[in-house]
Design a protein that fits this description.
Layout: E1 4-7, E2 10-13, E3 18-24, E4 34-39, E5 46-51, E6 58-60, E7 68-73, E8 78-83, E9 92-98, E10 113-114, E11 118-123
Parallel strand pairs: 2-11
Antiparallel strand pairs: 1-3, 3-8, 4-5, 4-9, 5-6, 7-8, 9-10, 9-11
Length: about 120
Amino acid sequence: QAQLLESGGGLVQAGDSLRLSCAASDRTASSYAMGWFRQAPGKERELVATISGSGAGVYYADSVKGRFTISRDNAKNAVYLQLNSLKPEDTAVYYCAARSSSLIGIRRVDFSSWGRGTQVTVSS
């Protein structure tokens, strides 16, 4: 399983932007579908966005469509999540995940490798 390390979280104000990064230690991860999930206190972990192994296919949760953008750089074994127009309800720990397939997955169980997460806090 690939080792995943997230970075880029922080404390921002509503309307601000952040860019999260996920670095994969395993070169084979460059062909895996990847995803970003988030978990707010007292809530279940939920899907934010996923991207196919080639990068051609993407999927977003309705709550972030038009504000967040997922992308990847397979040469760097990295996946990114650009967060724009942040809202207080986006506050959560954001997790990077990889699945052992190049096809997009949209369920938590589709993903077998997880990072430890990075905290995003949006103040009003």
